[in-house]
Every structure is written in C-alpha cells, then in structure tokens.
Amino acid sequence: MFARTALLVLRKDFAIEVKSREILYTTLLFAVSCVLVFSIAFVKEGEPLEDAAAGILWIAIEFAGTLALGRTFERERYAETLRALLLAPAPRAAVYVGKMLGILVLLAVVELLLVPIVALLFHAPLFAQPFLLVVLLAVGTIGFSAVGALFAAMLVRARSRDVMLPILLYPMTVPVMIAGVRGTSALLQSPADTPMAVMWIGMLAALDVVFITLALWAFEPVMTE
Amino acid sequence: MMRRAVVALSTVILTLMLSAPMVFALQQPPGGQTEFLPMKEVPPTETIPAAPLLIAGYSIIWLAAIFYLWTIWRRLNKVETEMHALARKTPR
Amino acid sequence: MRKAFVPLLVIAGAMFAYAPVMIAQAPFESTMGLVQKIFYYHAPSGMIMLLAALVCGVSSAVYLWGRKPGADHVAIASAELTALFGAIVMATGPLWAKKAWGIWWDWDPRLTMSFVGWMISLAYLFVRKYAGPGSDKLAAALAVFGSANVPFIYISVNVWRTMHPKTSVVPKLPPLMAGPFWFSFTALFLLFLLLMTARIHLEQQRAALDQMYLAEED
C-alpha cells in the first residue's frame, strides 16, 4: 500500500510533466545558465578555474533543485491538489515519498546534462571514476530531495514561501553540500582519491538515513492543521 | 732535594696533562646563539595584546544579555498595555 | 516560574560580577598565555548554545506530536537563546582565534557546523515571524531537523582534523582551571535559565492576550 501510493504519486507527477515538460526545460536551462555565469565569474587568465568544478557542479544542482521544488509545489498549490492528496485514504508518508522521488528523478535528469557541461567547461576529469561519481551524486541528491520535499511541502500554505525555501533549505543541506563537494574533489584528483570519496559517500548515506527518517516522522504532523 | 724537585715537576706536568682535555673542551664553541637577528615580519600572535580581547569578549556577554532582556521587557510592555486596553474595553 | 526570575537575576548577577576575579586568579595556559582565559566564557557559552538547541528540538518534537502549547513556548524561547548564545560564541571565538591562531576565522568542521547550527536557529526565528499562519508547525519541524545537527557539532572536533581544541580538554582540566570554568558555566547556565523564564513569561502573556481577543469576539 505504501509503495503503491508513493509510485502512484510519482506517476501522476511524471504524467503531468511529460505533457508540458515545463519544469524540466526551465530547470535545465536554469542549471546551464548557472554554470555559465560561474564559468565567466571564476576566470583566471582567460581560462575558467579548473579546481572550481566540484563546487560549481553541486551549487548548480542545489540552485536548480530549489527552483524545481518551488515550481513543483506551486503547481500543487495552484490546483489545490495537495489537500486532495492529503485527504486521500493513503498513508501520508507515502505521499511524501512520492513527491521526493519526483524531485529525485527530475534532478537526476538535470545532472545527466550538468555533469558533461561542467566537465567540458572546467576541463574536469569527471568521467574518470564514473561509477563512484554516479553513487556520490545519487546519495547527495537523495539527501537534498529528502529535506527539500519536506520543506517545500510545509511551505505550500506559508507566506513569503519563495524566499523562505532557500532560507530553510540551504543551512540544512550544508552538510550534504560539503560532503558532495569534498567527495567530488577527491574523485577529480589525479589519480582519484577513491578511499576519501568512499568515506564521503558513507557520510552522505548516513545523512540520508537521518533526513529521511526525520522527514517521514515529521510529514504527517506538519501537514495537518 | 733532587727528589723533591722531580716530584714537584712531575706533579705540575701531571696536572697540566690532566687539565689539558678540559681546557680543550672549554675551547669548543658554546651552544648559545652567536648573533641576534631581528624578526622581519612579526606574526599577529605576538603583536596583539591579549587583555583587550579578553575584556571585549566578557563585555560582549554582558551587552548581549542586557540587550536581550531589554527586548523582552519592551515586548512585554506592548503586550501588557494591549491587555489592559482590552480589559478596560470589556469590563465584564 | 515567574517568581524564579528575581532570585535567579540576583544570583547570576553576583556570579557574573565575581567571575573576573576567579578568571584572573586562574593559572595561565602553557602555550597561549593570557588570551586562553577567553575559554572560561567561550566554551560554556558553546555548551549552553548546544543545550538550548537540544531543548528547542525536544520541545518542538513534543509540540509537533503532542500538540502541547506550553511546548511551543519553550521551543521559541530556547530558539531565541540558541541564537543569542550562538552570537556570543561566534563573537568570542574569533577574538581568541586572532591571537592564538593568527586568523579570525577558518572553515574547519567545528566552526562550519556551529555556524550552520546558528543559521538554522536564525531561520527558525525568521519562519516564526514571517511565514504567516502555520509557521509554528513549520518552525517546529525545522527545529527537529536542526537539533539533529547538535551531536555532529560536538564530535566534529574529535573526528576530523581541526585547529579547534578537542572535547577532551574540559574533562581533563587541572583543578585550578576547573574551578573558574565550572563557576563560569554555572553563571552562564543561570543566565540561560533566567532568560528562559522571562521569555516564556512573555509568550504566555501573548497567548493570554490571544485568548482575550477570542473571548471578546464571542
């Protein structure tokens, strides 16, 4: 029942998105513009700063993710579908998991585009350790989506929600960002520092467990009146 | 007489021989500095006096506590004037 | 609870006034000298900041799941105090660091995580003030997440390589240093308690005012 509900929510979001692809395209374009601005800003002697690749990748993911979260839940608010979802006789936490998976899939697509672009613009050997990079991005994005989906859902009925989401989300995801950036930097060394990267992946996994557990507990009381 | 002279001479020679190593050892350069050189760049850890930092830190705590108590007092006053105004309006 | 305020104020005030005497009499530390004495109020402030964060997290959890309004009063009071004591820690730390390490700030794990914890407490206060209806539940969820950081802030200095002194310093303090340290800690803890009583009283008065408005409408 739980998994079915979560997957149904995911399918619903997917179906809506496939029709217009509005959030996907706008988020992709935003992420690419972000990276572009960074590559122009972090320039040394006419060349983009190569060491900045890890940080810029994760910043672009975080900014694009915040935007995507805002847009996804704005759509829910506009159609008042969130209330309908919560009224449904389904476990509330499953609704949360469904929304989180939706954001996760969206960010995964964004990362599919971002990683080659960052690798190209910053001459970063991101494809040297593809498996570890995928795992690192996966656990990091899961952590970000877990916190983001909860906070964005909470803010649906709040005032000043556009500015509140970054205020709430960025401090909370700092550990995820730090671990992601350090892990990616470790993978970008030549030769790649794989034990270090695995350590950061482990830390991200621990963070993911903490965040998802807290979010599953907190979703129900926070969404009820 | 001759014997005493021989004893005296041999004592002197023996003393000289025994003290020679010590004299040579004392001739080694001592372990201390040979010259004093001024520091070119004095790091901040040596130039900043500690007492002003200590006193500044302590006063920060006093100021923060007093400021916070003042904000509570101000907000409490606002709430209590409202309460009294409301109580006066409905004297039931 | 309100009656505790004045006695706490008197005792805390007296302890604070006497603390400099004790700190001045404490021995100098071997490598840092006089500036190390900032430790006697920087470290307890840090401990109380983490304590306030935990109190906020626990009372927020009680509020979220138990719906007790009293818990919400405790939560917002302790959030403000986390911000206050956090500000004290963030201000006194660099004062010590500039002389001891030569730099005002560093992004090492302990400093970074404490700064993030402080920012989360500020975000809590923002949410309470500006997020409109339902902000109390929102902020409570934020506080629960934020207080999960506290154990990490504490152990960060033991697990990672950092310039900040480790947690073994306090248990291993020699008696002449332990005396002033625990005296200052008690003074700051009493300050925490008295500020909590004042703030909770304010919150209770606000709740009473709301009740009066509601009663008037009937």
Walk me through the structure.
The complex is a heterotrimer of chains A (225), B (92) and C (218). Chain A contains nine helices and two strands. By secondary structure, chain A is mainly α. Chain A has one domain. Chain B has a domain of 43 residues. Chain B is built from three helices and no strands. In chain C, helix 2 runs antiparallel to helix 3, helix 3 runs antiparallel to helix 4 and helix 3 packs antiparallel against helix 7. Chains in contact: A-C, B-C. Chains A and C meet through helix 6, helix 7, helix 8 and helix 9 of A and helix 4 and helix 5 of C.
Summarize the SSE layout with pairings.
The complex is a heterotrimer of chains A (225), B (92) and C (218).
Chain A: H1 2-20, H2 22-41, E1 43-44, E2 47-48, H3 53-79, H4 81-87, H5 92-121, H6 130-154, H7 161-172, H8 174-188, H9 194-223
Antiparallel strand pairs in A: 1-2
Helix pairs in contact in A: 1-5, 2-3, 2-5, 3-5, 3-6, 3-8, 5-6, 5-9, 6-7, 6-8, 6-9, 8-9
Chain B: H1 2-26, H2 44-47, H3 50-89
Chain C: H1 5-25, H2 39-66, H3 69-100, H4 109-130, H5 135-147, H6 150-159, H7 175-217
